[in-house]
Amino acid sequence: MSRLTRKRGLITETSPKSTISEAYRRLRTNMAFSNRDGALKTIAVTSATPGEGKSTTSANIAVAYAQANKNVLLIDANLRKPSQHHIFELSNHYGLSTLLTERSEPDEVIQKTIIDNLQIISAGPIPSNPSELLDSLSMTDLLEAAKERFDIIIIDTPAIMTVTDALVVAGKCDGVVLVIRAGKVKNDMAVKAKASLEYGKATIIGAVLNHVSG
Ligand SMILES: Nc1ncnc2c1ncn2[C@@H]1O[C@H](COP(=O)(O)OP(=O)(O)O)[C@@H](O)[C@H]1O
Ligand SMILES: [Mg+2]
Description:
By secondary structure, the chain is α/β, with parallel strands linked by helices. It contains eleven helices and seven strands. Mean pLDDT is 89; it is low at 1-6.
C-alpha cells in the first residue's frame, strides 16, 4: 500500500480494524439487508454539495464489499471532477466517457485494482456533454450488462445541487446512498437533495454522516 493511497483515504484497505472501517462494513451489512429480494445491485453514492465525501465513501464501500468476497465494480460517474483513478492510482486515459462515446470497449476500460474482487471503470477524459452521456441508453445498457457480471456495482457521482448528473444516474440505479458532511452543509441542503432524489423516483437506501469528529 503506497503512501499516496493511504493519504487518499482508502481506510478499509489500510486500517481494516479501525472504527471507521467497521462503520463502512456496517453500512455494507445494512445495504445487504435492504437487498433481501436480490434486486439491489446498482448503488449510486451522492451528496447535496461537493466535498462531502462521496468519492471517499464510494471507494470504501466498494472495498468493504470486495473484502466480503463480492465481485465488485466501482464506476466513476463524476465525469466533471473524477477521483477514483487518483484514489486507486489507475490510468484515466480511457474510462466511462470513452465507453459511452463508443471509443472504447467494456473490457478495455475495466481496470483491476490492488484489491482482490474489485474492478474499476474510471471516468475517462472529461467530455463536453457529461449529463447527456449519463442520460444515454448506453449508460443504461452498461449498468444492465454489469449486473450480469458483478455482484454489486457502486457508482460515484457529482453533487446533486450543482448539476443534474447525479439525479440522472440515481434514476438508473436500484438504490442511492446520500453522504452528508457533518457541520458543513446546512440541513436544508441535505433535505432538498433528498427531496430531489425522491422526486426523481430514486430509492434512498442509506445516509452516511461523514466527517464526524471525536
Ligand atoms: N470521513 C472523513 N474524514 C476526513 N476526511 C475526509 C473524510 N471523508 C472525506 N474526506 C476528505 O475530504 C475531501 C473531500 O472528500 P471526497 O470524497 O473527495 O468528496 P466528494 O467526492 O463528495 O467531493 C477529500 O480530501 C477527502 O480525503
Ligand atoms: Mg468526488
